[in-house]
Amino acid sequence: MRKEFVIGILCLFTSLPVCAEEKSPDQPLQGETVSASVHHSGQPPTARHIRLTGENGISDTAQVTTVGYRRHTIRLNENGYLISPDGSLFYPVGGFYANWPHTVPDADGVIRSSMELFPCNDSPYLHGFPWKEEVEQKVIAYLDHCQKHGVNTLRLMLRNMDLVGRVDPVQLQAVLHLFDLARPRGILFNVVLFEDYEKPPYYSPEILKKIVLPHYTSEELQKLPSYRKRFLVDGNLIQGVRRFYLSRYYSDPDLIRCHKDYLKELIPILAAREEVLCYELENEMFYFPEDWCREITACIRSMDPHTLILANPHPISWRIPIEWRDWRKSAADLIAFHSYNSGQAKADMGTVLFTLAKWTAQIGIPFGTGEGGVYFESVSDETRCPEQRVLAARDHIWMTFCAGGNASLYWTIVHENIIGEFGKIAPVIQAFGLDLKTMKRRRPPVAVVMPAKGQNANQNAADMAKRLLELGVDFDMPSIDEAGHYAVCLDAMTAKAEEIRISETLRPAVARPATGWDLATLLADDGQTAVLYLRNTVGGIGNYGTDEHPFYFRNVRPDNATLQLEQPEHWNKIMVYELDSKTVREIKPDKEGYIRLGTTQSDFLIGLRNLPVKSGNKKMQ
Fold first, then answer.
1. Runs of H (alpha helix) within 83-225
2. Which helix (H) or strand (E) holds 603?
3. 208 within 8 A of 162, measured Cβ to Cβ
4. d(CA 85, CA 88)
5. In terms of Cα–Cα distance, which of 390, 533, 542, 517 is closest to 466?
6. What are phi and psi for residue 194, nearest 5 degrees?
7. Dist CA 528 CA 611 (whole Å)
8. pLDDT tens by residue, 143-180
9. Which H or E run contains 109?
10. pTM of this prediction?
């Protein structure tokens, strides 16, 4: 709808005062300042165009877009956890890449992709809107299956949504319909706004020609501003872009203006949707583009100051951790790391994941996992290693949790047993009576100190992480210039993992596990709550990948699951959740402080609390 306001014939509406003091490109308008009011249509976003014309014929225009913000917004609290509008904890669970919904499991529990709903690369969006009944039913089946397993968050990448400064209107309507279907199922979305790697049309002639240009008429192309004509008409794309050399992409002023045009169409629409949990800038950014992140983040917040913004460093290249720390300059609210292991570290996936979580925590921004699973180049056959994949998903969840993470999102799943692991998160939190909203993680006294830029100690750091897990010692992995906060510093460049021993200064945080078991620890700052993840590594580590792309998993074997508490008298309530059987029980340590869980190959979560003792009033005799 278009409204024009002319000086001397000023139409007044209610609400949203707007200053209409505009200047002509040639000379200033003379006269008094004019104010107009724009009526909110109730169907955001609504654009209002204001034209001001003086007696001498000079005129100019201004545009005002009204935004109807969502009524309920999830926020971060001071401890880095997400809080719902009603004050309850919101712990994002799932991910599962909504671009290609999965099938319900077959008789063997196998899950596959049911279709490419929103494809990437040079594959166009084909389903139109409204969807055919077949598409609708596949999406509904996928959402129902996710809801069944406690999934409350899906990750959606807006693939080929940016048509060089314009939003694909048909695909956007389909996205909003997906939101409509997810709403009654209690599912929110982590929405990735921009394309990644070599896919954007700004440097891909194939995508520009096949995906973008069919959306424009010749008349529309001629009316575009020069910075958009450069790409769409002149074909002057950004040259020489590769995933490890993206500086030209992120610093190009024309591209940034196109990005902002795209956001100005998109964000006012998404800002009104209750189903949006957060905006993710881009998938897996290889090198930190500080200026681009800050400028784009500021652009988003100028239209939607309420929604959380997430940044996503790339994990697979195993950059040295001090470079990850730079992401604290991104102006993002959240950081997501992806827990893949492409073989650079000869360590099992859980250890690699814990190492990445420790590095991410040093950024100083609340964090969680945004993807995870088996690195596809290592184990490309989805039918391989079914038991190990379940253990990998389990480590993905609980290693992040014990490192202080606030979310557990995953890549696509291939088996019912994998999605079943995510359904255990809420029951564990409930069974242990955890109040994560008020729980601040205690900084441990031990640090594995990572070197400065130019030095790589990543393999040794992973080896040390595994050794400290075997001892039940909690630790951080700060860079060398931030190690002064820790009482015990282990140099990742020189320390030998096999020589690390328990000593007076190097103690388990809460408990020490038996040989063949690892123990990850989340200890509250007040010392009154702890969560332990006891995982079975009795069978050692095996390579399930290839010689070119190794991939290491832990092997489980039946053995005595035992741990010894450092201060058994401190804990007056201990709950144990067995992850294989999904059973929970209360347990007491023996007189020597041992918790004995029997001979098993399962993994366990152990919740420990020091609850205040209630004293009753004695009656007067």
1. 133-148, 169-182, 205-207, 218-222
2. none
3. no
4. 7
5. 517
6. -120, 155
7. 7
8. 999 999 999 999 999 999 999 999 999 999 999 999 99
9. none
10. 0.89
